[in-house]
Write a structure and sequence with these properties.
The complex is a heterodimer. By secondary structure, chain A is α+β, with helices and mostly antiparallel strands. Chain A contains 18 helices and 30 strands. In chain A, strand 28 and strand 29 form a beta hairpin. In chain B, helix 3 runs antiparallel to helix 6. The radius of gyration of chain B is 16 Å and the shape is globular. Classes of the chains: A alpha+beta, B alpha+beta.
Chain lengths: 774, 163
């Protein structure tokens, strides 16, 4: 382990041959030449096309459902409603290679009696063509009698509110009691209290949900789909009353996920229709389906009451957190846990008091989204730090500096961080990269903003996360890797090739990775929770090391040396002590093959296992480890129109160890752009439960016109739990970006919009209000 | 019922006869005849994933009715270059990490090619922002796309100069 307290310039990864370099990814050629088949590109003979009928209203009782006309339409092979289901519900609990289902949060597959959100599926149709399937939907007769719904978390918590979930609309709640918050506030000279709110947002992956299913010669329902979680095969099997071994989910390279393809989407409909018809079935969501058909990011309301001494030391932090879950639980309890754990941010606070809850409504259900609640927490704690700095009259960076957690300090849940905490270095580098703030020009005001963060990587330790990986060497010296890990575009498979290649001395481009198949690749869990590289990378590292050890022992025998002295590079085997003694890797492999030396290994990697945190105090360990860093932004705000232009955006992160530097930068840059959109333009607007923005022309993701060049500053402490000391970066790259924008806007206009997103209208209004208050 | 027409279509230099409905979009036709490298992202012209070249000019194939294409040559990402004979933009996108999930990549490269041939062969970053504003990318934050377009355009100019 490196010296954790002394960040130095990364040593250019001198000891590695492939790891840490900005290599072309193994999946890149297929993508730029248009050769990569995505899940939606597969067809089969005799294939049917499916469509989903969705409820047009958010809260209703279904009094009549008649599909006879749709069934009679020529070309329709099957129409399924709740009446046709053997089992009416499907699990929505966290999927993955994490043992058993934890929570009884199953939801109806097709509307049985009550519609609980707009877009809830009522019937599914398979037909000879998409057009016939679409026509059949229009022939289904449904009577929906409106039932009073509840469309905000305040109303939902009232005793007389309509109940969407359980008896009280409470999906989950937690508390943290660290120290004594009253003692902390008594010691405070200044108390700052603010409430921050965030909005519903959409993943907007470019590839809508899609899949193709068929039944094979063993009676197994195969589904090739665009998914982050092949492990959902278990939930699909359970929902159909099939043995787990009779459902197989095979992924493909995924056209973006961001958390939105972790839950079951098209797969169950495909499986049901395949079983019903005995024919292959393809279901591709339209973009509109995608808006209605998967869980969104949770809106949060977070109130911070923070005590400070006059010189800026935090004495107490009282935080109240409410998230909106929509009518079903999905990942809401876990997302709330992340937000709770992350509550006070990357700061050392002795006295912490947090109450959090997730509340059901009849708005769209919410689930996983990059950052998983820690993002919303960051939006609150980092804006709060800036507001506090203003009240205290202390520089914003300096205030943070006086409170930052360090290695060995206890976070909100009392867990003492073991890895490097280089937040300060990241803050300083990000701010330095911003340079001088330009001088205001008339109505154009310039602002600088910063946000630091803490983001767990890996699963919550009570989920007992594991990943398996397989590495084998072919007779000709080429290498195969097998891992169930899905590849959602972050370079998951490429990194596995790079890890195996580094250890076996074979170029990553000469390694073939089979991934994302629930039946034939060793299961490695989901590409979520910033766990892909950490978990599957470690599993493949262990497998490759075992193969390497056996090959090295045989090579040592050949060279008359010790195995420790044997090294592998450039498809050659040689002695470190005498590099002239060399043999081709291929030759060594052939020798091993003829002698029956095992050239393959299946390894399992186990994350730290632990118990649930104490439910009364919230004390204990939640995550295996954390990533730290900071983001800095320069904006220009037109104070007359409220328009914001992001001029500079810099992400500085200690990622432990880069495996592919270009891929790391890509994660940061992409996460940042998503953060820009989150802060300024993206919002799913629900009016009494009905979505007002169901297209990409109404839901505004950043385009190139909105996106400056983003700068990544990558530090490597080599202190993480991932392969070679890596930490997770999939979510962290995104987490601090939005609050940094918000802080820059507030810096520019001298007042703050507390309610995300910071639209031109809200900014212009805030400027006017501040001027009047003068 | 919709009318049907038989058309002669040129896709990546291969001529084929295709029967299409008059309300069929070029995106639907191309994917139906196997050109699945043309991606479907929204079917409304919002995302640019389905962009193809018509006589060298980029269009959203989801907004183009197939029967209106006439004799114009259709080029998809596969017609631009191959692993054996890569187009400089393909090389630059691969080498500089401009393709992450890769779903926007075919449309993005097609739009870039159109911009470089019709608007400017020497784009600066601002030209690129304007030229690619109809193509959404959700993974890269566009930064490595800017790099790849600058690099690819440079390589294209050098190739042109060497002729």
């Amino acid at each position: 382990m490196n010296k954790l307290d002394e960040p130095t310039v990364a040593e250019q990864n001198v000891n590695f041959r492939q790891i840490g370099k900005p290599r072309t990814r193994t999946d890149a050629p297929g993508k730029v030449f248009g050769k990569t088949p995505y899940a939606g590109d597969y067809v089969m003979p005799d294939m049917l096309h499916a469509r989903v009928l969705r409820a047009k209203v958010p809260s209703a009782r279904m009094t009549r459902l008649d599909v006879s006309k749709a069934r009679a339409l020529p070309g329709v092979a099957s129409v399924l409603t709740f009446r046709d289901l053997k089992i009416g519900t499907v699990a929505t609990d966290i999927p993955g290679q994490t043992g058993f289902k934890r929570r009884a949060t199953d939801q109806q597959i097709l509307v049985d009696e009550l519609v609980r959100y707009q877009g809830e599926p009522i019937a599914i149709v398979a037909a000879e063509t998409v057009e016939i399937a679409q026509h059949a939907l229009s022939l289904i007769e449904v009577d929906l009698e409106p039932v009073p719904g509840v469309y905000n978390v305040f109303d939902a918590q009232k005793p007389d509110s309509p109940k969407v979930f359980g008896t009280d609309n409470l999906v989950a709640s937690y508390k943290v009691r660290k120290g004594d918050v009253e003692v902390g506030f008594a010691a405070a000279d200044v108390i700052v209290e603010n409430t921050f709110t965030t909005q519903y947002i959409e993943h907007a992956f470019l590839e809508p949900e899609v899949g193709l299913g068929w039944e094979d010669e063993q009676g197994v329902i195969n589904i090739r789909s665009s998914t982050q979680a092949v492990e959902t095969f278990r939930y699909i099997a359970d929902a159909m009353g099939l043995p787990h071994s009779k459902v197989r989910i095979r992924g493909a390279l995924v056209g973006g996920g961001f958390g939105g393809k972790c839950d079951v989407t098209v797969e169950l409909y495909i499986a049901l229709l395949t079983k019903a018809t005995g024919r292959p079935v393809r279901l591709g969501f339209t973009r509109e389906d995608s808006f209605y058909g998967h869980g969104k990011r949770h809106p949060f309301i977070i109130t911070h009451k923070t005590g400070f001494t006059r010189d800026g030391k935090i004495t107490a932090s009282k935080i109240d957190i409410t998230s909106e879950s929509g009518p079903y639980a999905f990942m809401s309890p876990y997302v709330l846990m992340y937000a709770t754990e992350a509550g006070p941010g990357p700061y050392l606070v002795d006295h912490v008091h947090i109450d959090s809850r997730s509340i059901a409504t009849n708005n769209m259900y919410t689930s996983a989204f990059r950052g998983f609640g820690a993002t919303q927490a960051c939006i609150a704690y980092e804006q709060q730090m800036d507001e506090a700095a203003k009240v205290l009259g202390i520089d914003r960076i300096e205030l943070r500096r006086r409170n930052l957690l360090k290695t060995g300090d206890a976070i909100a849940t009392g867990f003492k961080v073991q890895s490097a905490v280089w937040t300060e270095e990241c803050m300083d580098r990000a701010m330095a990269a911003l340079g001088e703030k330009p001088k205001d020009k008339g109505p154009i005001k310039y602002g600088h903003g910063l946000a630091a963060y803490q983001q767990g990587y890996g699963r919550m330790i009570w989920l007992h996360d594991t990943a398996e990986g397989w590495v084998g060497v072919e007779m000709d010296g080429t290498v195969l890797v097998r891992s169930g890990m899905t590849d959602i575009g972050a370079g998951q498979t490429s990194s596995l090739a790079q890890i195996a290649g580094e250890l076996l001395g074979i170029d990553m481009m000469d390694i073939t990775v089979y991934n994302s198949d629930s039946s034939t690749t060793p299961l490695a869990g989901t590409s979520s929770a910033s766990r892909g590289l950490y978990m599957s990378g470690n599993a493949v590292r262990l497998a490759a090391e075992a193969v390497r050890d056996r090959l090295a022992a045989r090579a040592a025998q050949h060279f008359g040396s010790t195995a420790d002295d044997v090294d592998f590079a450039n498809a050659q085997v040689f002695l470190k002590s005498d590099p002239r003694k060399t043999m081709p890797f291929k030759e060594l492999v052939a020798t091993c093959a003829s002698e029956g030396i095992h050239r393959a290994e299946l390894a399992i990697f186990r994350a730290p296992f632990g118990d649930w945190i104490d439910p009364e105090t919230g004390q204990g360990q939640v995550h295996p480890d954390y990533t730290y860093g900071a983001h800095a932004v320069q904006v220009a705000v037109d104070t007359e129109t409220g328009e914001v232009t992001i001029l500079k955006s810099i992400g500085a992160h200690d990622i432990g160890q880069a495996v592919n530097m270009a891929a790391v930068e890509g994660q940061i840059e992409g996460g940042v752009a998503q953060g820009h959109g989150y802060a300024l333009s993206e919002e799913l607007i629900y009016k009494d439960g009905c979505l007002v923005t169901p297209s990409l022309s109404e839901y505004l993701c950043p385009t190139s016109m909105d996106s400056p060049r983003i700068e990544s500053i990558v530090l490597e402490s080599r202190s993480g739990l991932g392969p070679f000391g890596a930490k997770g970066i999939g979510e962290p790259g995104h987490t601090p970006a939005a609050p940094a924008v918000a802080n820059a806007v507030a810096d520019a206009i001298g007042t703050r919009v507390f309610d995300f997103p910071l639209t031109p209208e809200k900014i212009a209004r805030a400027v006017r209000t501040a001027r009047k208050a003068g | 019922m919709t009318n049907r027409k038989t058309l002669k279509m040129t896709v990546n230099d291969t001529v084929r006869n295709v029967e299409v409905a008059t309300n069929e979009t070029l995106l639907e036709t191309l994917r139906r005849v196997g050109a699945v490298e043309v991606k479907c992202g929204c079917e409304k012209g919002d995302c640019g994933a389905c962009a193809v070249l018509l006589d060298g000019m980029a269009v959203d194939s989801c907004l183009t009715l197939t029967h209106t294409v006439g004799t114009r040559a259709i080029t998809t990402i596969k017609g631009l270059g191959t692993a054996e004979a890569p187009h400089p933009l393909q090389t630059a996108f691969a080498e500089l990490g401009a393709a992450q999930c890769g779903y926007c990549t075919p449309g993005m490269i097609i739009a870039t090619q159109s911009m470089l041939t019709h608007d400017t062969a020497t784009p600066d970053e601002n030209d690129i922002r304007h030229g690619l504003s109809g193509n959404l990318c959700r993974c890269t934050g566009y930064t490595k796309i800017y790099d790849a377009v600058l690099e690819g355009a440079k390589a294209m100019r050098e190739t042109e100069a060497a002729k």
